[in-house]
């Protein structure tokens, strides 16, 4: 079940940290897709030092970004655990020069700041000998030459015993994560697509996880048994049903890839964030730290810039719900919890006025949130005796605009009331 804190959080920071940062290549997929051998991929273990990893610094940056939760890759599809797991020696404590339980340090620092603790855990493990033991849904594919040896048996023979052992292994690792690091608020699964709900032993698996913390929130990647939707990289156009979170990279990579210079600008990131919250969702913004634990300056600057914008516009972000339909206002908006304030997000420089249609309430005051400047408005048209409101024109000049996204606060008489009809013929005057 989704807890209230999640819907109020608005922003989370995703962290893809792992040995793939040593060579600066794609997390796990690089060996799965044959761009590097598994052996060479694993050589990165020797270069993973985490020597400048300072969880308190990360927590500080996350707090400054305005995020209320963090989600760290405890283990990606490559199977390398960032904690001292007893169930496999493929972990950074035993196999890398880092020799530290990074999850312990992360969990402590995040919890200390009052940020909600999230853990990404890959259900699939392309390095575990028991993992490639069955096929998706138990169906042996016709063309065995196309089978990837890291995810399924190449000979067409399934081994249910091995698969059971693998599920046991996942359960054990998850038990460690859920019991050794204080209260975990959110589990972010990934990779459910390689097996069916039945093969993942759902819904029992979910009940097992909830037995450690009944309040835990679980993302959607659990073959229909998750608590909220997780669109990835492509921003939704239609509001997803129920609680949701949009996860996105800052450049084009989840992990640290120095060759990837496809950075989004701060303005674009702020805009994406506004698109999420005005449609009632959260944004989970990813950073990919370098192997030593340092966050690339360009990613750090984005987090700080976003945080600065949020802190200036705090009341339009937190404690609000999704806004009015774009038929009323051609931009984003949010509404205060008491429904007495409407926040209009202005993305472009205004020509003369901002146009708002269908508002039935009287407006008591309009201010530009970042400057406090009061704006004038006029109302034209409307048919009062049919309760059809006129069009509100708010006078705003480019000088009133914020350098990124401007927010106008409309203080209303009573609770927000929008007219949604198709108009009427004015039969008498
Ligand atoms: C995809 C990828 C993975 C990444 C994740 C983040 O599912 O498998 O590499 O961690 O998206 O959402």
Automatic annotation (TrEMBL):
Keyword terms, alphabetized: Glycosidase, Hydrolase, Signal
Highest taxon in the source lineage: Bacteria
A Pfam family matched in the record: Alpha_L_fucos
EC number from the UniProt entry: 3.2.1.51
Domain Glycoside hydrolase family 29 N-terminal: 2-314
Keyword S-adenosyl-L-methionine annotated: no
InterPro entries found in the cross-reference section: FUC_metazoa-typ (IPR016286), GH (IPR017853), Glyco_hydro_29 (IPR000933), Glyco_hydro_29_N (IPR057739)
Function: Alpha-L-fucosidase is responsible for hydrolyzing the alpha-1,6-linked fucose joined to the reducing-end N-acetylglucosamine of the carbohydrate moieties of glycoproteins.
Family the entry assigns: Belongs to the glycosyl hydrolase 29 family.
Protein name, entry field: alpha-L-fucosidase
Organism: Paenibacillus apiarius
